[in-house]
């Protein structure tokens, strides 16, 4: 994701931490049993200016599921959970997944319990109709040592237990550091997958973020069969700038880049256990964000999703 996304995630987490002081039917492709959605960060500026109008445009394209990237002070894009659920219902959309960073401060080590802010996160996710509460970042302090990372994977499992009480599942979404950083001669990604309970913690594999760090999604899906209930469907092209992951790559319309998207998502559906395919594009070249989302949707439908 963009460097600005990292800043956005950090700001969102800080605001959410400050807030501590103060089962539905999914629309699925019947032929494939897959759920196609779009990550709203792809249209972040449009959502900021006109969230309802933007959602209507996405629905008009054919999308039936969205994934949020904005939960601040117990509100989604400025709406309470109940309000946003109504907004979604009114435009014919569901929100089975959502991104909110689970920070170090959300776990009270002395009490061995989650803080009120994280409990509110889970509570509001259930109200709005989510099936998955996904954390899209892991604080650098939590991945400095092997033992430290293992200890926090137990917190991941506990978050899974908390979500399970509300009929949901906790999840994690990768960037690129999981593939470029090693602890005890193991990639951070491998440690995280091997030390989280798959019945409690889902992995949302972002198939584009890893590319510049040497991760190849097709190999990973084959390496861990059944472990990727969700995917971020993303393609990448080489760029003259640092790119979204600061590794020389940025996202583009599906099928125009180097990831080999169709082969990856087909493998996900075949052996990866993937049901939720969430389109995300953060750079647009000559198109607008909404034009990109329309192009991506049409390609996914062409591919049978």
Number of strands: 16
Anisotropy-based shape = globular
Distance between the termini: 24 Å
| SS-derived structural category | alpha/beta
User: How would a crystallographer describe the biggest sheet?
Assistant: 8 strands, parallel, barrel
Question: How many helices in DSSP terms?
Answer: 11
CATH superfamily: Divalent-metal-dependent TIM barrel enzymes
Q: Give the proportion of residues in helices.
A: 25-40%
Which sequence of strands runs across the widest sheet? 1-2-5-8-9-12-13-16
- The CATH topology assignment is TIM Barrel
Rg, alpha carbons: 18 Å
Order of helices and strands: HEHHEEEHEEEHEHEHEEHEHEEEHEH
Low-confidence stretches: 10-31
* CATH level-1 class: Alpha Beta
Domain count: the total is 1
Chain-wise SSE layout:
Elements: H1 3-18, E1 35-39, H2 44-49, H3 51-61, E2 65-68, E3 71-72, E4 75-76, H4 81-91, E5 94-99, E6 107-108, E7 113-114, H5 116-128, E8 132-135, H6 146-164, E9 169-173, H7 177-180, E10 182-183, E11 186-187, H8 188-194, E12 201-206, H9 217-223, E13 230-233, E14 235-238, E15 249-252, H10 261-272, E16 276-279, H11 289-302
Parallel strand pairs: 1-2, 1-16, 2-5, 5-8, 8-9, 9-12, 12-13, 13-16
Antiparallel strand pairs: 3-4, 6-7, 10-11, 14-15
Helix pairs in contact: 3-11, 4-5, 9-10
Summarize this entry quickly.
The protein is of the alpha/beta class and 305 residues long. It has 11 helices and 16 strands.
